[in-house]
Amino acid sequence: MESVSDLFWEASVEEMKRGYRHRAADSEYVCLICGETFEEGLIYPSDGRLYEAGKYAGVHVEREHGSVFEFLLGLGKKLTGLTDLQRKLLHYFYYGYTDSEIVDAMDGGSTSTIRNHRFSLREKEKQAKVFLAIMAAIDGKSQKERKAELMSRERRAKLKQEYLNTPKKMGIFQIRNLVNGKIFLGSSPNLPGKENSVLFQLRMGSHYNKALQQEYQEFGADNFVFETVAEIKHREEATQEEYKQELEDLLELWMEELQPYGDRGYHKK
Q: How far is C-alpha 253 from the geometric centre of its chain's CA atoms?
């Protein structure tokens, strides 16, 4: 099975921009951030509305992971090549700030300086396009070799069916610091997918909980574990909305029980 990082880096620019991709061979859409899949031909309910797989993939990305733009921008300098100043400017450009509004927001500089930054970033975009074209030319040589290494279509279909027929584990999870015992609590209707998503974000330095992210970088990945605290059993008659409410109620109970605040955790009251 592909890892989430493989899914992400093998996607096109357009697929990265929307946060999911279509795999025609498997008749499914897959989230590039957590790896969750959505099968074509199925209807997915959410908040009283029904969605086809492609539309629901977009709903999933927005609901579970927030703005794809902010996620990409938060990947850090090592992956984006952007300085802190450039990230701030791109944030303002994305949300439609004028040059004078950006100057006011940054408490300094001039509109001419902002225009120069716009020009520099456009030049960076052109360089990136040329580099992508160069790498695509290189990759084209080994495309036949990569195809030869793929598992047979029948085997893929069998694995896919086994995956679809297996109910996803849902419930409460914790990320525990093995050094100081502090924990971060959360809930998910897909614990394996959530584990992939959370650990991916921590590795990339983009997890929304800054205290957890800081200590993850300080102590290292080997000193953190993802653990299931409690599970909700699947019931054939239950709806997604009922599961959602159960997860919210169960998380509230475990927050009260474990009190993951201060020296005991990464949450704020």
A: 27
Q: Which long-range contacts does 81-86 make (Cβ < 8 Å, 24+ apart)?
A: 81/124, 85/117, 86/117, 86/121
84 three-state secondary structure: helix
pLDDT for residue 107: 82
Q: Mean pLDDT, to the nearest integer, of 243-259?
A: 95
What's phi and psi for 87, nearest 5 deg? -65, -40
199 shares its domain with 250: yes
Q: How many CA atoms lie within 13 A of 64 on its CB side?
A: 28
Full domain range(s) for residue 10? 4-66
CB count within 10 Å of CB 197 equals 21
The CATH number covering residue 232 comes to 3.40.1440.10
Q: Are 173 and 195 in contact (CB under 8 A)?
A: yes
Strand residue runs (E) in 147-192: 170-177, 183-188
Is the overall model pTM greater than 0.70, yes or no? no
Mean pLDDT for all residues in the chain: 88
At residue 3, the pLDDT reads 42
